[in-house]
UniProtKB/TrEMBL annotation, chains A, B:
<keyword id="KW-0521">NADP</keyword>
<comment type="similarity">
    <text>Belongs to the gamma-glutamyl phosphate reductase family.</text>
</comment>
<dbReference type="InterPro" id="IPR016161">
    <property type="entry name" value="Ald_DH/histidinol_DH"/>
</dbReference>
<dbReference type="GO" id="GO:0055129">
    <property type="term" value="P:L-proline biosynthetic process"/>
</dbReference>
<protein>
    <recommendedName>
        <fullName>Gamma-glutamyl phosphate reductase</fullName>
        <ecNumber>1.2.1.41</ecNumber>
    </recommendedName>
</protein>
<dbReference type="GO" id="GO:0050661">
    <property type="term" value="F:NADP binding"/>
</dbReference>
<dbReference type="InterPro" id="IPR016162">
    <property type="entry name" value="Ald_DH_N"/>
</dbReference>
<dbReference type="GO" id="GO:0004350">
    <property type="term" value="F:glutamate-5-semialdehyde dehydrogenase activity"/>
</dbReference>
<dbReference type="Pfam" id="PF00171">
    <property type="entry name" value="Aldedh"/>
</dbReference>
<keyword id="KW-0560">Oxidoreductase</keyword>
<dbReference type="InterPro" id="IPR020593">
    <property type="entry name" value="G-glutamylP_reductase_CS"/>
</dbReference>
<dbReference type="GO" id="GO:0005737">
    <property type="term" value="C:cytoplasm"/>
</dbReference>
<keyword id="KW-0028">Amino-acid biosynthesis</keyword>
<comment type="function">
    <text>Catalyzes the NADPH-dependent reduction of L-glutamate 5-phosphate into L-glutamate 5-semialdehyde and phosphate. The product spontaneously undergoes cyclization to form 1-pyrroline-5-carboxylate.</text>
</comment>
<dbReference type="InterPro" id="IPR016163">
    <property type="entry name" value="Ald_DH_C"/>
</dbReference>
<dbReference type="InterPro" id="IPR000965">
    <property type="entry name" value="GPR_dom"/>
</dbReference>
<comment type="pathway">
    <text>Amino-acid biosynthesis; L-proline biosynthesis; L-glutamate 5-semialdehyde from L-glutamate: step 2/2.</text>
</comment>
């Protein structure tokens, strides 16, 4: 039987050891993890094949199967990302804000590990490694709860990680996996505030809400991207089309893929028609607003319903809506966005500035694809999650999001006057 | 009847106006608040007198009465603190981390307001002004829920603030007070996630736990200080005594006052006796550990019970415990501290470093009083709260803790490759 109190206590204890490792000790540990993953790659891929087989027989969606799949190339990509994290500066022990206060104290802030992370995620095996590596680099322990569909893959990945921890003399409890599928364990994890410092739910709206409702530990919500792209009338339409196609088609199953295209209503009907035709050639299924259907009767059978503009599609579906100006686009986004990623395509500076100033999502793109919202693309090495809330961390969460700090004040037997 | 949905909606709307104010508009608004508080000071102090009278007749503790009291000097102090906030740099609109990414995008982070703050606090009228001023300076709206004992004072303070908002053309809903004493409103506020971005509970353990259990909005816990001071054997005992007395006696009713004194067991009994005697001369009531009672039989009647070392006293009580070395002090702190403020008095660098490296509380003092954990003392202008959690903000929370950020990426019709 899985005993979460023991898991929590052991994680806390391991986190104390981790907080005292030097930068080079931590990097050596990460190198060892990369090496063990390479050495165990056959068993990892074999485990994933079993998970995939079971998942297919259970009729998982294409999006879920794509997330679950680990092949040689993807595993190599995951291992290569570890090198990126090794190359990053150690986020711990930095002293900033050195100040001599009016009261005579020398005050500074020193970055410290958060402690123990609790991460609950869907069936994406890359997350198991990404989070372990980032957690350890920032001196944290982690308790992982992966999707049940990826159980065997995760056990195989964890075995490799544990080999590296043991080899380097670090407590195995530094990274622990709750592999027992009993759902009640999630609720227990969310209330393990005695030992866990932060909960990161990576999954759909139901999981996020469950965590917000039940957790007594701070929760970082995110990962749900209802992403918008606004095509202004002042834009290069050929180049724009390439960006729109990229945002929608390149990897439609992930959170930074485009969900809704907002088109300035002054753009002429032929231009619009040829753009939508190209999207259809790329297998995109359009859900258009009333006004698009009026101007292009060929789409009368593809009209969007009321809820379609509140969907994170995670597939090749795309909502298309006409708006009369940038303010209408901003208003639509403020009502329908999940605060993840939005883009504007425009050559007009005033319009661009209005959009950038008014859209308060975690990532705002000017003449670029929404697909860039990603820790590696942002130069953060890898990412633990993409936060769509406003506290602590926003957008792709890298190492810094896994740290806290303490204030240190030096005096000379100084009382407060 | 108080309609929290309307309060929330109006706050959100006001926050949009506030996010667009320039630095000078915000500073002019704060000046107007200072002026209106001065103009209304008679009615404010009269309201406080009524609150004090009622509180005394209800038998509130001395600590609560002291927190509730507003006199001319304290009100002037609160108004003067507004000038400090005006003098601070605007935390909004700063662009940092300008980077040209490998993918060709120009990426930067821009600081933005959090949005709407929900603050639940005990009967401390200064909090009403401090929070309003800091919230506005950072472009945020705030919904305040003050202690019922300070209801009339808060209404008077809010009236002055509203006069300033109106005078400056800012929506009155920028700062709202839930003055209806119905307790169910707190629960409703904690679930107003559609409109409120952050909850700050300033109050005792019960309020903090209530917020953690019930809120669907991120909560910043804090303000509970079980503060320790470790007196090492290598220390100047005369100077140390002055710091200990300051930490305990200067203002015993606040969260950064000393709760437990840890004394190195090598310090000789006479020195210890004379220090404890001086504390008693200062009206401090000692609760000593078994070993102190053995060495100083005069304190046999003052022995601490099991729970006494887990108390935030908020009064002139002080726990006293012998420890055999700095590691024992660190261990005691890690088990009993609330993560607020701890201090070491020592002249030995190795001992100091061991303490500073291992104690992970929000504020760690070397040869200084714990009483310095305070936004104004830290040069933050004023403070919204003292956070004892590890996410988002730690220790005294000033303006920066009231901001979020967004990532802005500029491309040239850039798809992700």
């Amino acid at each position: 039987m899985t005993d979460l109190l023991t898991i929590g206590r052991n994680a806390k204890q391991a986190s104390q050891q981790l907080s005292q490792l030097s930068s080079s000790q931590k990097n050596t540990l990460l190198q060892a993890i990369a090496q063990q993953l390479k050495q165990h790659q056959d068993s990892i891929l074999a485990a994933n094949e079993q998970d995939m087989k079971a998942a297919k027989s259970q009729g998982l969606t294409h999006a879920m199967l794509d997330r679950l799949l680990l092949n040689h190339e993807r595993l190599q990509g995951i291992i290569n990302d570890i090198d990126n994290v090794i190359a990053l500066a150690d986020p711990i022990g930095n002293e900033t804000e050195n100040r001599l206060l009016a009261n005579g104290l020398e005050l500074k802030k020193r970055s410290i590990p958060l402690g123990v992370l609790g991460v609950i995620y869907e069936a994406r095996p890359n997350v198991t490694v990404d989070i372990s590596v980032l957690a350890l680099k920032a001196g944290n322990a982690a308790i992982l709860r992966g999707g049940r569909e990826t159980r065997l893959t995760n056990l195989a990945l964890l075995h490799a990680i544990e080999c590296a921890l043991t080899e380097q003399g670090v407590a195995k409890a530094a990274i622990q996996l709750i592999s027992d599928p009993n759902r009640a364990l999630v609720g227990e994890l969310l209330r393990l505030d005695q030992y866990v410092d932060m909960i990161i739910p990576r999954g759909g709206p139901k999981l996020q809400q469950l965590c917000l409702e039940q957790a007594t530990i701070p929760v970082i919500t995110g990962g749900i991207g209802i992403c918008h792209l606004y095509l202004d009338k002042h834009a290069d339409f050929d180049k724009s089309l390439a960006v729109i196609v990229n945002a929608k088609v390149q990897r439609p199953t992930v959170c930074n893929a485009l969900d809704t295209l907002l088109i300035h209503s002054d753009i002429d009907t032929n231009t619009m028609a040829s753009m939508l035709a190209e999207l259809e050639r790329q297998q995109v299924q359009l859900k258009v607003c009333e006004r698009v259907a009026q101007r292009l009767p060929a789409y009368a059978q593809h009209k969007a319903t009321a809820v379609d503009f509140d969907q994170e599609w995670l597939s090749l579906v795309l909502g298309v809506k006409l708006v009369d100006d940038v303010d209408a686009a901003i208003e639509h986004i403020s009502q329908h966005s999940s605060g993840h990623s939005e883009a504007i395509l425009s050559d007009d500076n005033d319009t661009i500035n209005r959009f950038v100033d008014s859209v308060q999502s975690a990532a705002v793109y000017v003449n670029a694809s929404t697909r860039f919202t990603d820790g590696a693309e942002f130069g953060l090495g890898a990412e633990v999650a993409v936060s769509t809330q406003k506290l602590h961390a926003r957008g792709p969460m890298g190492l810094e999001a896994l740290t806290s700090y303490k204030w240190i004040a030096n005096g000379n037997y100084t009382p407060r006057s």
